[in-house]
Amino acid sequence: MSVGREMSGGEISPPVGRPRHGKADWLTGARISAVQGLFYRPEGRAGEPEAVEFVLEGGQSVLLTCASDHTLSITSGAWPGLPDWCVPACQWQFEQLGRLPSPPYGGAWTVIGTQERRDGHGEVREAVIRCENGDFVVGGGDTVTIRFVPR
Length: 151
What we know:
Radius of gyration: 15 Å
Order of helices and strands: EEEEEEEEE
Strand content: 35-45%
Helix content: under 10%
Distance between the termini: 43 Å
Structural class: mainly beta
Number of strands: 9
């Protein structure tokens, strides 16, 4: 039986790959050491990521994945392992996202809050992870979009 892991701030995260439940400020206080795109690569490098994994100091991670209805699924990640749905595993890979800045001095972004923008059915369409130096904005669609908006 899988058990959740403790996230920064004392909240318990769900088991790996399971949706998290609770308030929108679920990452406040966490430190993000890396942001990786998860790509399906049967024919080489092309396109946008199918998911984005935020790697936290201490070894935990958070995975944001696009769903077939263009919403975002937010689950605990399994960094550096691939999610179970990456089949066959040899056709999936993590890559750094070149259009994102390097972590600030100190080696990590500190999360000061999060915001989830939902559709009329209550599903997450966009997640904003607010950090001291700027915001990561992750959107659902055919693939995941991510951008960093500096302060």
